[in-house]
Amino acid sequence: MRYSEMFLPTAREVPSDADVVSHQLMLRAGLIRKLTSGVYSYLPLGYRVIRKFEQIVREEMNRAGAQELFMPTVQPAELWQESGRWTHYGKELLRFRDRHDRECCLGPTHEEVITDLVRNEVKSYRQLPVNLYQIQTKFRDEIRPRFGVMRCREFGMKDAYSFDVDEEGAELSYRKMFEAYNRIFTRCGLKFRPVEADSGSIGGSFSHEFLVTADSGEDAMVYCTKCEYAANLEKAEVSRPEQQPVDEKDFLPLEEVYTPDVRTIEEVCAFLKVTPQDVVKTLIFSADGKAVAILIRGDEEVNEIKVKNYLGCDELELAMDDMIREVTNSPRGFAGAIGIKCRILADFSLMNMKNVVMGANKEDHHVKNVNFGLDFKVSDFVDLRAVKADDVCPRCLSAIQFARGIEVGHVFKLGTKYSKAMEARYLDRNGQEQIIVMGCYGIGIGRTVAACIEQNYDDKGITWPMPLAPYQVILTPVNWKDEALSRTAEELYRKLLDRGVEVLLDDRDERAGVKFMDADLIGIPLRLTIGPKRLAEGKVEIKFRRSGEVHIFTLKEAEDFVVNAVKAEM
Description:
By secondary structure, the chain is an alpha+beta fold.
C-alpha cells in the first residue's frame, strides 16, 4: 500500500478525553474515530489489525473443530423471556419495538438465539457434539463507556457455543476451547493468564477469564507464586482453616455495653478498646427479597459475588432499613447474631474465634464475649470474604501475588441453564429424551487489540508484535523527489510484495523526520530506510521498531533479511 493513497489521519497531540494509552494511541495513530459515546469507527489501518486478529481466531477455532456461522443482531424478546433473562439482564440490554409493536433487543450475546437454532435442528445424539461460532457485532448499553474500545457499547466479539450429550462431553469441549484460547493469545504475542472467574449474567457452573496483564487493567487477579492457580478477585478462594477444639472454660460471660452513637468498626474499637480482629460485623442482605445475615471479622470485607453464588440467588443487595429493623428489632449499625430472625452464614475468618464483640440488636448497644455455638448458631462457615495479600494459595498453600489485567476472553461451562429453560433436547441411544449440555466461549476482538497496545508501546507510539501489525514493513525513502531514492524504493517495494511481505511505502513528499515520527507512531515492526549516503554505497538501513536494533545491508541482503525476519516472528 502507498502511504499517499491511504486514509491515515495521524495526530501529534494526546486527546484530552482519552485516559488510557491504548485509547490515546489508537486515536493518534489513525486506527479509530469516535462516532458517539461508546461507538467507534475503525479506519483502514485499525481494521487491518482487526482482520488479522480475526484470522488468527478463525484458524484456531477451526482447528479445534468449531464451525463458523453468522446470526442476527436483532433478537426477538420471546427468546429472552424463555430463558428468563429479559427481566434479569439489566439496562445494558437495549430493548425496542419494531413497526409491528413487537418487542426486540440488540444482541449483547447470543445464547438464546443459538439455543433456539440448535433445538430446532438437532434431534438425535448422532448429531452431537457440535460447536458453532461467529464473529459478529454486539451492543451493550453501558452506563459509562470508557477506555476507548476496551469498554464501549458497540463492539466485535467472537462467540462460540458447544452442545454435548453429557457433562463428560461438555468437559472435553470446554478443554478444547481453553486450549484454543491459549494458542490464540500466544500467537498474538500477548502476556496473559487464564484465571478462574465468576460466570456473572451468562450463568453456568464454572468459567475462566483470559486476562492480558497490564497496569491499566480494570480487573484484578490473584495468582500463586508456585503452582498454576490464578483467579480474579471475585472468584479468588480463601482456604478453610482447621477447626480447633473448643474449651468452654475459656468462654467469658456475656456483657452488654452501652455504646451511644457508636456504629462503625473504628468507633466500636475505640470505644471498647479492642482491635478489629476482636469484632464481628453483622451485615444484613436481601437475597431475592429474603433476609440473610452475613458475619465476618471486623478487619475483613465481604465478597458479595461469593455470597450470591453460595445462596444461588438472582438478586443480592444490602437490606433496607425496614428489613434490618424487622429481623434485628434495631436500627442500622447495631445488628448482631444473637436472637436475629433470619438465616446466618459466617465467614471462615470467624472459625476458632471466641469472646467476640458484636452488635446487640439494640440501639446504642453492643455485646462483648459472644461465642459461636453457645450464644447463637450459624447455618455454616463459608468462604465469603475478599482475598488479601497475606492469604495463601488455596491449592498448594504457597504465597500469592496480585496483578491487574484486561479481560480479553471468557470461557463458560453453561451446563443446562439455557437448554433446560428453552427445551433443547435430544433422543439418546435408548430413545429417551435428554437435555443438551452447553458451553459458551467469548473473545472481545477490539478489546484484545487495545490490550495488545497496552502491552506494546513506548514514548514514540505503538510497537506492534508482528502477527497483529497492520503492515510488516514500512519502506521509507527519506526524499521522495530524489529519483534514485524513489526508483530504488519502488523496486524494493515490488520485490517484497512478490515475496509475500506486507509493505507500506511512504511515498509522501514530507521531511524525513515527519516520516520517521509517523512510522514510530503507527508501530510497523520493521522500517527499511533508503537514504542518499547509504544508497551511494549500494546499501540501506533496517531498524526494528521494538528494540531499536539497526542493521545495514546491500539491497539483496536487505530483501532476504526482511523476508526471514517476518517469517521468524509470525
